[in-house]
Amino acid sequence: MIRIAIDGPGGAGKSSVAKAVASELQIIYVDTGALYRTIGMYMINSGIDLKNSQEVINHLGDFTLELKFIDGKQVILLDGVDVGDNIRTPEVSMAASAVSAIPEVRQYLLDMQRNIAENNSVIMDGRDIGTVILPNAEVKIFLTASPEARAKRRYEELIAKGVEITYEQVYEEMVQRDNNDTNRSVAPCVPAEDAIILDNSGFNPAETAAAVVKIIKDKQAEKENKGDEKKEKTVYMKLHRFLAPFFRFVMRLHPHGLENIPAEGGILFCSNHIGALDVIAIAASTNRQISFVAKKELFSVPLLGKLITVLGAIKIDRGGNDVGAIKASISAAENGGAVAIFPQGHRYPGINPATTPKRNGAALIAYRSGCDVIPVCIQMKNGKYCLFRKIDVIFGERIENSTFNFQNGGRDEYDKATDLMFDKVVGLSNYGDLPCYDPNNDKHNKPKTKKR
Ligand code: DC
């Protein structure tokens, strides 16, 4: 089932595009404006003063209104009679706008609209579909265009139907209707917070339909990807359930500060790096699924490569600035995931981490995703993994993203943020006795010497 909400002002082309999409996706198109139009028309025909809301409300029980779909096409029956095109006149447009501002009228039509979407895939157009009628719609689009462009389209439509009207009249009415629909206190015509706004001023109907179809397809692909991520999560969590206690036991893992780890929401773990086992030490210490940023070489190791892919590891090419890995990490954190990164970039067993080089990937991810950071310090005797050696995995207090005081990003800000997070990592433990990093004896960062 898919529910697509298309909201926007009159003349934006909602109905043409919704019809095209409905026929392409083989789903029902619901034109909710037609319901307000029908009530507006009834009230005019009954001589009711539209300015008198109470009078309109009093007459709501005087007629029957049915919404049917015959051969997939919407039909509205007023007292059993198909309203057809009688609801498409400029006079009825204004009446529809007037009655639609009355909360009781909106309430009267609410269930009718929701019920259709409950049992069918729909594309529904209106003013409040994404905000009120279908707040959980899978796709929400707010289609709009300049008043001039919309008035021109409406004018051409009406002339083609033989209505005698000038462009100026259409424009005036459109602006007035926009005003009514946007500024009313109940269900105003405004984009839902999660709607995609599409301005189609310079588009023809085919181009608008293509743009809308693309938005829908992108949304569907996004949903499928999320489904895949969830599948990965279950594999990860399934393995985690029995492997974590095993590793905690055999590696003599002693986690500390687990209360600092949020149960959900995007978060970045930033840890010192001693060896390949760091990944297991962190993963087995926590109950959250973590995407580790892992060097690309690991992905080509038979079996291991497959395993870490399934577990959602993020591949990074340490040779250069791996934009893809950083983007994947940002998107994981933005989507509420936990990401772990080792700012030292390489493993430094037996060396005081406070003295090693650092890279700015973690700071960049924190800046771009806006997520908070948990400093992690892995500590053991001599700063090296060794069989039966007790390992402490210390999770520090959450560093709020605002602490980094990011303004516009950039090298200086990243350097400062990296120092701040890594100082916290180092501050969690005491590696003071370990030898310091020696740049002349570093296989990862060989000092550049000129060839003679
Ligand atoms: O989309 P339309 O032009 O047929 O709509 C006619 C009027 O009905 C419009 O001025 C505002 C109102 N309307 C509404 O308030 N909420 C909807 N979901 C649809 C239409």
Task: Give structural attributes.
2 domains, binds 2'-deoxycytidine-5'-monophosphate, alpha/beta, disordered C terminus, 14 helices, 7-stranded mixed sheet, 452 residues, 5-stranded parallel sheet, Glycerol-3-phosphate (1)-acyltransferase, Rossmann fold
Q: What is the topology, as strand order, of the major beta sheet?
A: 9-15-14-10-13-11-12
Strand-residue fraction?
15-25%
Q: Give a count of the beta strands, DSSP E runs of length 2 or more.
A: 15
Q: Based on helices, strands and strand pairing, what is the structural class? A: alpha/beta
Biggest sheet, in brief?
Answer: 7 strands, mixed
State the helicity in percent bands.
Answer: 40-55%
Number of domains: 2
CATH class of the largest domain: Alpha Beta
Structural Rg: 31 Å
**Mean of all residue-level pLDDT scores:** 91
C-alpha termini separation: 69 Å
Structure description:
With 452 residues, the chain is of the alpha/beta class. The chain has 2 domains: 3-224, P-loop containing nucleotide triphosphate hydrolases (Rossmann fold), CATH 3.40.50.300; 251-438, Glycerol-3-phosphate (1)-acyltransferase. Helix content is 43%, strand content 16%. The chain has helices spanning 14-25, 33-45, 53-58, 90-100, 103-119, 129-133, 147-160, 167-183, 205-250, 277-285, 304-310, 323-334, 361-369, 411-427; strands spanning 3-7, 28-31, 65-70, 73-78, 81-82, 122-126, 139-144, 196-199, 253-256, 267-271, 290-295, 314-316, 338-341, 372-379, 391-395. The longest helix is centred in the middle third of the chain and has 46 residues, at 205-250. The chain is elongated. The termini are far apart. The model is unreliable at 448-452 (pLDDT under 50). Bound molecules: 2'-deoxycytidine-5'-monophosphate (DC).
